[in-house]
Design a protein that fits this description.
With 598 residues, this protein is α+β, with helices and mostly antiparallel strands. It has 20 helices and 20 strands. The protein has an 8-stranded mixed β-sheet, sandwiched between helices. The model has no long low-confidence stretch (mean pLDDT 96).
């Protein structure tokens, strides 16, 4: 299969037309960041620890070393050859240099609503494939426009990693391979641990939906009548093990071409034999299933189960959720608009190639070890999907609240009621208004939110006082998110300063202070991705001591995906979900004067 690399010459058309006009990610003012950081510590520390950390921060702010580190960071940001001062560090520290398995610790998923007009799995898969090809074509022909935030374009850099791309394991850090669009007009299909590839263009024309259905039907028939060593599970191993085992695969003749076919394909489609019923079953089926019919390194995997329930699994390293949200919203709308496939309408016979890996005993042993790692990792995930149907965005706005801040306060109240204290909380805030921007942290646990949560637990505090504290917490949260999306957060700036301490120089006390690590140890990691088309959306916790909370604010409901590990720390996603539901009823009752739901 012919492949070639893809360079900046492929970044053309409307999607990339505004890139040269985008501002660079700013370096915040040093003293402003330090002041915000000190404020963020107060609800998290005891009075004595807070006083100690405050003194350390103040001493750092007055030091010559702090000003030298700030000067170095400003110089890095001003370098014309550096598109974004954070990009290289962030991509390596958070993703490419991260050595734990990408599933479940990096990948995320969107579970789609059912399509009542499409109950055949291969037909639904074919329609989703058709939509993804149509979206990809807009990138290829230059007609896709950039996303906008109000009147300003967002950075489109991450779109280059959407199609015909793949994360590749490597030590000490992975890398992302991207290949030519026109030379690789292919889709990889996985079924029953077996890989197949077909071209979606034949004789210069796209395959019809009916032709794709016929292709998928034959693939399913062939795969279900055979068996194979589940090589795809190797992508679920630790990154160092997968890097070693990829080299092992390459030692057998012919395997290099098969790896190339998978890595170069536009995207992957997994046809799972699962038949999920509950929201939790659907989430697991889309996110990971049994891991045998996946290639978790691909940024875009569409997943369709035998009962035609479907979704998307994304590898997170080079692309955050907003571009893939745009992709799947387009794909879902495209699929829903297509008429039912006509079984006899396929004009051309299916053509595809089975990718049959050579699996000597050493590879088989590696697969068994990877299966054990995968099974242990996903078994530890305690998952709960809460569909809170009492109200959603519209009623929250009628109550005079920011929907995002409102949900964040419900999360804070639920957590403090469940665990009895305030913990460091992360909310992802998008910084794509800047060139090569990705995210910044909003530290959602604030003095104001802590004061309100305490008032909600104190029967001596009246409703009016609680509402005043709640409004103050909302205002503070909105201010922090506004600052974060403007590149004026705390965490990325402090990271930049720390990264510029040279070898042999003394590490500043601010970074050795236990409060620095603790305040960025995300006991509650949250992110919003909202769509009316999702049955769930989620990912894992980021620490064994914490929760992952993915929330979807729909017009008339809230869809919340809770994860945590089953371990010695005693966390429980079911309990968190129940506490969130109670908190959501209590907040509405507080603001509207109703009695709380019992």
């Amino acid at each position: 299969m012919a492949t070639s690399s893809r360079d900046s010459a492929h970044e053309y058309g409307a999607l990339y037309g505004q890139q040269s006009q985008l501002p660079r990610l700013p370096v915040p003012d040093l003293q402003t960041t330090l002041s915000k950081y000190v404020v963020s510590l107060e609800p998290l520390l005891s009075a004595d620890d807070y006083a100690r950390s405050k003194r350390i921060v103040e001493e750092f702010g007055q030091s010559a070393q702090a000003h030298e580190l700030q000067r170095r960071l400003e110089a890095r940001a001003a370098d014309p050859d550096c598109a974004n001062w954070l990009e290289e560090w962030w991509n390596d520290l958070s993703y490419m240099g991260y050595r734990d398995p990408v599933i479940p610790y990096v990948s995320y998923h969107y579970s789609f609503n059912d399509d009542p007009q499409c109950t055949r799995a291969t037909e639904r898969a074919a329609k989703l494939i058709s939509g993804a090809i149509a979206f990809r074509q807009q990138i290829v022909d230059g007609t896709l426009k950039p996303e906008m935030q109000r009147d300003a374009p967002l950075c489109s850099h991450s779109y280059k990693f959407m199609f015909n791309a793949c994360r590749v394991p490597h030590r000490p850090s992975d890398y992302c391979r991207i290949v030519d669009y026109q030379a690789n007009q292919t889709v990889v299909v996985v079924r029953n641990a077996q890989f197949f590839v077909f071209s979606f263009v034949r004789d210069g024309t796209l395959l019809s939906v009916e032709e794709i259905v016929a292709t998928l039907d034959q693939i399913v028939e062939e795969a279900d009548s055979g068996a194979a060593v589940p090589v795809g599970i190797l992508t679920a191993d630790s990154r160092d093990s997968w890097a070693q085992n990829r080299e092992l695969l390459l030692q057998s003749s012919g395997n290099a071409e098969l790896l190339d076919a998978i890595e170069s394909a536009a995207f992957v489609v997994s046809l799972e034999s699962d038949q999920p019923v509950t929201r939790e079953e659907l989430s697991r089926a889309i996110w990971h299933s049994n891991g045998r019919s996946r290639w978790f390194d691909k940024p875009c995997q569409f997943v369709v189960c035998d009962n035609a329930r479907a979704g998307f699994c994304g590898e997170h390293s080079m692309m955050d959720g907003t571009p893939t949200l745009r992709l799947v919203e387009f794909v879902i709308a495209h699929a829903l608009a297509l008429p039912p496939a006509q079984p006899d309408a396929a004009r051309r016979q299916p053509e595809y190639t089975a990718l049959r890996f050579k699996t000597p005993p050493a590879v088989v042993d590696a697969v068994k070890r990877a299966e054990a790692v995968f099974a242990d990792g996903v078994a530890k995930q305690h998952l709960k999907v809460l569909n809170f149907a009492a109200y959603g965005k519209e009623q929250i706005k009628q109550l005079g609240c920011s929907p995002d801040a409102y949900v964040q306060m419900a999360i804070q109240l639920a957590y403090t009621r469940l665990h009895g204290r305030v913990r460091p909380t992360y909310e992802a805030s998008m910084t794509r208004r800047f060139l090569h921007g990705r995210t910044e942290t909003c530290r959602s646990a604030t003095r104001e939110s802590a004061a309100w949560c305490a008032a909600m637990r104190d029967p001596g505090v009246g409703t009016a006082a609680r509402i005043k504290l709640f409004r103050a917490a909302l205002a503070q949260h909105t201010q922090l998110t506004t600052q974060a999306v403007a590149g004026q957060g705390v965490d990325r700036h402090l990271l930049g300063l720390r990264m510029l301490v040279k070898r042999g120089e003394q590490m500043p006390a601010i970074f050795e202070d236990p409060a620095y690590a603790y305040s960025a140890h995300w006991y509650v990691s949250t992110s919003q991705m909202s769509s009316e088309n999702f049955a769930s959306y989620g990912w894992s916790e980021v620490t064994p001591r914490g929760y992952g909370v993915a929330y979807n604010i729909r017009k008339h409901s809230l869809l919340i995906h809770f994860t945590c590990m089953r371990n010695e720390h005693g966390l429980n996603s079911d309990h968190f979900a129940q506490c969130f539901e109670t908190a959501a009823y209590d907040i509405r009752a507080m603001l509207s004067g109703q009695q709380p739901k019992q």
